[in-house]
Amino acid sequence: MHKERSSCVVVTTPTPPADKGPADKAPRTERGRRTLRKLLDAAAIEFGERGFHEASITGITRRAGTALGSFYTYFNSKDEIFRALVDDLSGKVREAARSARQQDLPALETERASLTGFLRFASEHKEIYRIIDECEFVDPDSFRLHYRNTARRIHERLAEGIRKGELREDLGEAHAWAIMGMNVFLGLRYAVWSEDAGAEEVAELANSILREGIAKR
User: Which of 11, 23, 64, 217 qualifies as a cystine partner to 38, CB 3.0-4.6 A?
Assistant: First the structure.
């Protein structure tokens, strides 16, 4: 009698490589940077139109005209590209305000020019409001960082105005947040909801409040 040998085949599943962090996934070529730019621009439209929860990675890559694999070359998840997008939009807001200013403007003119630049940007990128608002719940840390950095830049400009003797000396952080709050809601009203007033007109109105206040004289 022959004993039947039993053979056991062990199937091993390869361990997937560990997720790379954002620094590891940073593009190293011009082509890579162009692809990343396409993905971020497409994500702005996808998240802006559909919201975070309804947006999808395939929707982003379809809008970007890239392969699905290209997405994972730069991002590990929808959450990750959302955080990168918020950071990207914050940088664009900063650049829009900065590029609208000329060098060595007086302090109040600096604020007027900065708001004009922001209003123009918001008018062309209305999706920023929905994306930043959703960020409060999707990624609270990025949400807070966006506004803290914006207020910090205003505070620094106020401090420079004080140093030059153009603004009163008791202006502090709370004043910067107040100016930022005014700017944010003016953008919502006159750049997103309706454009029935030009950026320059709205910025001048806001600047008149900084110059003169609202008390009857």
Answer: 64
